[in-house]
Amino acid sequence: MAWTFKTLKVGDKDSTSKVITAEVVEKFADVSNDNNPLHLDEEFAKTTIFGKRIAHGMISAGLISAVHGMVIPGQGAIYLSQSLKFRRPVFLGDTLTAWAEVLEKNEEKKRVTMKNWVANQKGENVVEGEAVLQFDV
After folding, report:
1. Looking at the predicted structure, is the pLDDT value of residue 136 above 80?
2. pTM (2 decimals)?
């Protein structure tokens, strides 16, 4: 469904998914300059509390951005703010689904407040947050 400001209502929700591969993590490290060995070096990662490589937390946040920019509310929405709470690590091979649900709609200001969460393939939330988006049309 193509969402617009007019068609959005409180309770509407939608999602987008992605498998987090080593290539995804390595590309993110290159773009972000975050080369923490926890994300890139398996031998180093084995010495951490996770016991293996984990993805950058901001990859999950990026999926929230993708769900807002491309799915709900979709094209034409402008990010004003985003809160994030990182709940669990994301491991290579995890399938993440980023969700957004309309909490509030301000007709006068053409803004929506969205609840966000990113769940892994086990249904466990790895990130939770809230966003405010503005429409220019």
Report:
1. no
2. 0.93
